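Quick one, probably user error.
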């Protein structure tokens, strides 16, 4: 057997191990129903706040602004606009919190010594880290797709459906991009966490504040400029802005027909369809570039850290082979 054939067999074995490890990680996450619930807790809080408090308040504010311009009878259009804003917050928060909870398998494996066993096994060093990323991304995509379907059903049943086919496909594309970006960032960060206590703390803190930072609980325009600038440095905030443009564009066009383009522009700024990035306006293309760039950056950092971490194990294996020879 020549070296090329041996490399081919090792590659096939590595991908087989990657598939099995990814399935194993995903099954562990999906079997834990409590973990699934807490991964969707932030989207549920967004929904509850909107239904109980924020929905009527926001609708009343917009209707009062329209009434000041002499526009009446816009209740349905305003309701569709506010419902779409809520759905954008639900989806954007789900694409962050689900991959975060799915990363808990990494910490469990370290505590139980499974990570060390994998490092000492014939499994390629890249297979385990790649499986954590793929399983967290798969969990994020599966649950986010379910949340998206429920959100679309909500809009349709509430009479707030203002989406075109292009809007639907754009929303699905943003979901995939946001999940990949969030997973890359979170797997990179969780890779430095060694204990389940520290991971639980991260989960609680991030799950609590992410709804505020991405503007899911209330529009970012209501926060001080410093908070807006800080939020604009978070990729999830830009992903939330993309969701709003996909989901709220049709409803905003309806309000434009009832009022004026100037009013619609002001409303778009107030509800963060465009972000305030240190005094500059970040539109759709800037937000898209930010999310895609963050995904590439953290994927590169993830690969780099795993390559550096695998060097000692690779040297140990090489030394062991030399001793046997």
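Nope, works fine. Designed sequence:
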């Amino acid at each position: 057997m020549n070296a090329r054939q041996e490399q081919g067999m090792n590659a096939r074995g590595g991908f087989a191990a990657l598939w099995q490890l990814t399935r194993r990680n995903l099954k562990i996450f999906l079997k834990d129903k409590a973990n699934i619930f807490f991964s969707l807790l932030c989207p549920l809080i967004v929904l509850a706040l909107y239904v109980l408090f924020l929905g009527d308040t926001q609708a009343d504010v917009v209707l009062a602004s329209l009434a000041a311009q002499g526009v009446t009878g816009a209740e349905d259009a305003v309701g569709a606009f506010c419902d779409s804003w809520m759905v954008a917050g639900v989806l954007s928060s789900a694409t962050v919190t689900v991959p975060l909870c799915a990363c808990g398998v990494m910490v469990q494996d370290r505590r139980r010594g499974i990570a060390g066993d994998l490092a000492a096994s014939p499994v390629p060093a890249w297979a385990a880290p790649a499986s954590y990323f793929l399983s967290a991304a798969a969990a994020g995509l599966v649950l986010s797709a379910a949340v998206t379907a429920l959100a679309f059903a909500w809009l349709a049943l509430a009479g707030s459906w203002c989406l075109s086919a292009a809007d639907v496909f754009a929303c699905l594309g943003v979901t995939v991009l946001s999940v990949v970006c969030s997973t890359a960032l979170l797997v990179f960060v969780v890779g430095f966490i060694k204990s389940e206590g520290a991971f639980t703390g991260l989960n609680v803190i991030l799950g609590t504040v992410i709804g505020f930072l991405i503007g899911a609980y209330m529009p970012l325009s209501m926060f001080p400029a410093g908070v807006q600038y800080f939020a604009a440095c978070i990729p999830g905030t830009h992903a939330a802005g993309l969701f709003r443009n996909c989901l709220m564009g049709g409803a905003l066009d309806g309000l434009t027909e009832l009022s004026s383009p100037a009013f619609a522009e002001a409303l778009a700024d107030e509800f963060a369809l465009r972000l305030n990035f240190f005094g500059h306006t970040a539109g759709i293309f800037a937000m898209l570039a930010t999310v895609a760039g963050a995904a590439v950056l953290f994927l590169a950092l993830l690969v780099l850290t795993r390559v550096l971490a695998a060097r000692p194990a690779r040297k140990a294996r090489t030394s062991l082979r030399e001793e046997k020879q």
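Residues 40-318 form one domain.
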